[in-house]
Specification:
single chain; 638 residues; five-stranded mixed β-barrel; 4 helices; 49 strands; 40% strand
Length: 638
C-alpha cells in the first residue's frame, strides 16, 4: 500500500515498530457495506478511555513541527503519560490512539507519522481522558527534473531529493587536498559579491552525461560506467570521475569564472555539497573583495597572543622571535618565545614559503596552505634552538592551546668569529673515549662546527667533539667553521695497559612494551656472563622500554621525574661498573656517587653511550637517572 493510499489511523503493534509481536489494525476508513452504520466514519469508535492514565503530553513538539518534505523519514511521537507504561500494549488495547485530520497529507501508524503529500494535517492523540495535538506541515519541492533553477533554489531542497537540475554559479575558491586535489573540490556561489555564501562542489567533471568512463571498485576490479549520471528507482547518482583537472572544458577554470552546469545534491556529513557535470565556461569577472589588512608589526608575542578572538584570523603580525624548541614533527612545528624568553607559543606548520599565507577576500580571513617545508627550505632547514627569526603570524589556536601559523621571512644566522677547544683530559687509551669542548665567540652561534683529527688512524673525533683512541700515538684535534679555525688540541693515545676481568654482565636490551617492571626485580634472569653477584634492592620509575622502539632496555624516570636503581653486590671484588645506555634528551644525566655524565645527544635508533664508574670496595651501588633514561647493559669487572 502506498503512502498516498493510506487513510485515517492505522494501529500497528509489530516487533519492528512497537516492540511486540502480532498485528492489530484499526482503520478510520468506512468499511464496505457499512454506510448505514452511524459509527462507521468515527475514527475513535474503538477507543477505550482508561481513567488510570493520569497525563498525556507530546514532548517532542518542536521536532515534529519542523520543516518536513515528502520522502523524508517518518517521525515518531514521544509521549509523557505521567508514569511508565508499555505503549505497545496500550495501543494494542486501543487505550492509546492517534488520528490524522488529513490522511492525504500525513498518516499515523501507531505513534509514527508518515508524510504522504504536500499540505497540513493535525494529529490528535488520546489516552485516558486526555487529548494532545500537533500540527505538521509537509512540503514538496517544485523543481522539475532537468529544469534550470538558481543555486539557492537547488540547495534549499532536501538532500533526499536527488534529482537532476541545471544552474550557473561563480567559482569562489579551491579546496586543496593533501593528495593533490584528486577529488577536484572547489567552491561556488550565486555571484562574486562580497559575503556570498559558497557551496562545495564534489567531484566536478567536464564530461557530458552520455560519455563513458571507468573506475576501480573496492575489490580491485575495473568497472565500466555508461554515464557520469546514473539513475535507479527514480533517484539520480553521480559516478564521480574527478577529471576536471584534465578535461578540456574545465582544466583552465579559475576563481572568478562563471560556469553553467548540470547538478544533483550530494551532501556529506551535514555539509551542503553538489556534484557537477556538463560544466561550461560563461565569463570571467574579477572579485572585488575587501583589501587585505596591512601587516601589524609587534614588539612581543604577547601582542599576538592577546588578540581578540574575533580578529585573530584577520590580522597579520610581523616581527622577531626566538626559537625555544623544535619538536621534529612532520608538521614542522616550532616553539618560539619573545627575545627575552617570555610568552612561549607553538608555531603550527611554519614555512619559509611566503605564498602559504593568503587573504580570502570573500570570507575576509587569512588562510594557510601549510606546506610544512621549514625543515627542507634552504632559508630555514638549519634553524637551531636559540636562534632569532623574523616571522609573519596569524593566530591559529587549536582547541584550548594558543598557537600561531607562521611564515619565516628570514633567520638571523650567527657565525663564529673565534673557536677555542678545551678538555679536562688530554690522554685516552686505545678503545676508550674522551670529550672535548668547543667555545665560540660569540658564545651562541647557529653554525655547526666541523671537527677534524690530524690522524684518524690514531684517534677519531665525531661531530660532538668525542675523541676515540685507535692506536698509540698523538693527534691534533681542531674545530672549524668556514675560514675560522680553532687552536690545535693535542691528544695522546696510550696503548691499553689493563685488561678487565668480567665478574658479571647483565643484558636489559631485550625488554619490550611499556608496562611497569614487576617488583622485586630478578636481575639474575638477565645474567649473560660471569657469576650472579648482584641483586636489585630498589627500583623507582622503572618501565620495560617503549613500544615503538626496539632494544631500548630498562626505562627509568618520566618526562619530569627521576628514576633510580640500586645494586647489592654479594662479593666486593668488582672495581668497575660499566653501563651502556642512552638518554632520551641531551639534558638526561646518569650518576653514581660523585661521578655524573650528561647524555651527549638525544636518543637515535641504534645509538648508545658507554659510562664507567669506579666502585672499588663497594657493597652497594646506587645509580641515579633523570627524566627518561634507558639502560641496555650493566657489567661489573675488576
Amino acid at each position: 500500500m502506498s503512502k498516498r493510499n493510506m487513510r485515517g489511523v492505522i494501529l500497528l503493534a509489530s516487533a519492528l515498530s512497537l516492540g511486540v509481536l502480532g498485528t492489530v489494525v484499526s482503520c478510520n476508513q468506512p468499511a464496505t457495506g457499512d454506510k448505514d452504520d452511524d459509527n462507521a466514519n468515527d475514527p475513535w469508535k474503538d477507543f477505550v478511555a482508561d481513567e488510570t492514565i493520569a497525563k498525556l503530553e507530546i514532548t517532542n513538539l518542536e521536532a515534529l513541527e519542523a520543516e518536513w518534505w515528502v520522502g523524508e523519514d517518518d517521525r515518531q511521537m514521544e509521549l509523557d503519560l505521567g508514569a511508565t507504561y508499555n505503549t505497545a500494549s496500550l495501543i494494542y488495547e486501543n487505550k492509546l490512539m492517534a488520528v490524522s485530520s488529513n490522511p492525504d497529507v500525513a498518516t499515523v501508524n501507531g505513534l509514527r507519522i508518515q508524510a504522504v503529500a504536500p499540505g497540513t494535517a493535525t494529529i490528535e492523540v488520546r489516552a485516558g481522558t486526555h487529548k494532545a495535538t500537533v500540527t505538521v506541515t509537509v512540503k514538496q519541492d517544485a523543481l522539475e527534473i532537468g529544469g534550470e533553477y538558481t543555486l539557492e533554489e537547488i540547495v534549499s531542497i532536501p538532500n533526499t531529493q536527488k534529482k537532476w537540475f541545471k544552474s550557473s554559479a561563480v567559482i569562489t575558491g579551491w579546496t586543496k587536498g593533501s593528495d593533490g586535489q584528486v577529488y577536484g573540490n572547489f567552491n561556488i556561489a550565486k555571484d562574486w559579491s562580497k559575503g556570498a555564501t559558497s557551496y562545495i562542489v564534489y567531484g566536478a567533471t567536464g564530461k557530458t552525461a552520455t560519455e563513458g568512463g571507468s573506475y576501480v571498485n573496492s575489490s580491485g576490479e575495473t568497472v565500466t560506467v555508461d554515464s557520469v549520471l546514473g539513475e535507479k528507482d527514480g533517484v539520480f547518482s553521480f559516478n564521480n570521475p574527478r577529471d576536471w583537472l584534465e578535461n578540456d572544458n574545465t582544466k583552465d577554470l579559475k576563481v572568478g569564472d562563471k560556469i553553467s552546469f548540470d547538478c544533483i545534491r550530494c551532501d556529506y556529513n551535514g555539509t551542503i555539497e553538489l556534484s557537477l557535470w556538463n560544466v561550461r565556461f560563461i565569463e570571467h569577472q574579477e572579485f572585488e573583495p575587501s583589501p587585505e589588512p596591512d601587516a601589524v608589526a609587534f614588539t612581543s608575542l604577547a601582542t599576538v597572543l592577546e588578540a581578540e578572538a574575533g580578529v585573530k584570523a584577520t590580522t597579520k603580525y610581523t616581527g622577531n622571535v626566538k626559537i625555544s624548541s623544535i619538536d621534529g614533527t612532520t608538521y614542522g612545528n616550532l616553539h618560539v618565545t619573545d627575545l627575552d624568553g617570555s610568552n612561549e607559543t607553538i608555531v603550527y606548520g611554519s614555512t619559509a614559503t611566503a605564498s602559504a599565507l593568503a587573504w580570502d577576500g570573500v570570507n575576509e580571513i587569512f588562510t594557510f596552505a601549510n606546506p610544512k617545508d621549514y625543515a627542507t627550505n634552504e632559508l630555514t632547514k638549519d634553524l637551531v634552538v636559540g636562534q632569532e627569526i623574523n616571522v609573519t603570524f596569524i593566530r591559529a589556536d587549536y582547541k584550548t592551546t594558543k598557537e600561531v601559523t607562521g611564515i619565516i621571512n628570514s633567520a638571523v644566522h650567527i657565525d663564529p668569529t673565534a673557536i677555542a677547544i678545551s678538555g679536562d683530559v688530554a690522554e685516552v687509551e686505545e678503545g676508550k673515549t674522551i670529550s672535548l669542548t668547543a667555545t665560540t665567540t660569540p658564545a651562541f652561534t647557529t653554525r655547526k662546527l666541523t671537527w677534524t683529527s690530524s690522524d684518524p688512524e690514531t684517534a677519531t673525533v665525531n661531530e660532538n667533539g668525542k675523541v676515540t683512541g685507535v692506536k698509540a700515538g698523538t693527534v691534533k684535534i681542531t674545530a672549524s667553521y668556514g675560514t675560522v679555525v680553532s687552536n690545535e688540541f693535542t691528544v695522546t693515545v696510550k696503548a691499553a695497559t689493563t685488561v678487565s676481568t668480567v665478574v658479571a654482565a647483565y643484558n636489559f636490551a631485550d625488554f619490550g612494551g611499556t608496562s611497569a617492571v614487576t617488583l622485586p626485580f630478578s636481575i639474575s634472569e638477565k645474567l649473560t656472563e660471569g657469576s650472579d653477584i648482584a641483586t636489585v634492592s630498589a627500583v623507582t620509575k622503572c618501565y620495560t622500554g617503549q613500544s615503538s622502539y626496539t632494544g631500548l632496555g630498562l626505562k627509568f624516570g618520566t618526562k619530569t621525574e627521576a628514576g633510580m636503581i640500586s645494586f647489592d653486590l654479594s662479593v666486593t671484588t668488582a672495581t668497575k661498573m660499566t653501563i651502556v645506555g642512552i638518554g632520551w634528551t641531551t639534558s638526561d644525566t646518569i650518576s653514581v656517587g660523585e661521578t655524573s655524565y650528561t647524555s651527549a645527544h638525544a636518543y637515535t635508533e641504534g645509538e648508545t653511550e658507554t659510562y664507567e664508574f669506579d666502585i672499588t670496595g663497594a657493597s652497594q651501588v646506587v645509580v641515579n637517572l633523570t627524566k627518561r633514561y634507558y639502560i641496555q647493559s650493566v657489567t661489573f669487572s675488576k
